[in-house]
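Hi all, a correction to my earlier message: I attached the wrong file for NifU family protein. Here's the right sequence:
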Amino acid sequence: MSAEGLERQTRNYLSNNIPQIQEHGGHFEIEDVNDNTGDVTVAIGGACSGCGIAPMTIKAIEQRLPTEIEGVSNVTVRRAGGPRAAVMPSKIEVMEDMEEYEDYDPPF
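and the right structure:
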């Protein structure tokens, strides 16, 4: 499959299966797609830059894209930076220790 095809499928998957990114004021951008290796790089930004549970969203994207899109073997997701990015500390370590998040599986 071409890089354009993988990029289109990745964009469609994120738009259709992880609408919380956009619903909560965030956005995503496909930064790089290598059709030879299956490597995909995605940046999330907007409200995601300041969200304490963005690491859980990142983890979900990195785990699910390779299983959902044929030709994708490795996904790297990063928070988009920039002068207007309000970055908050990650809450994932605290959440992982909380009993109510023991079996947490994001609904996306």
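Sorry for the mix-up. The CA atoms of residues 96 and 106 lie 13 Å apart.
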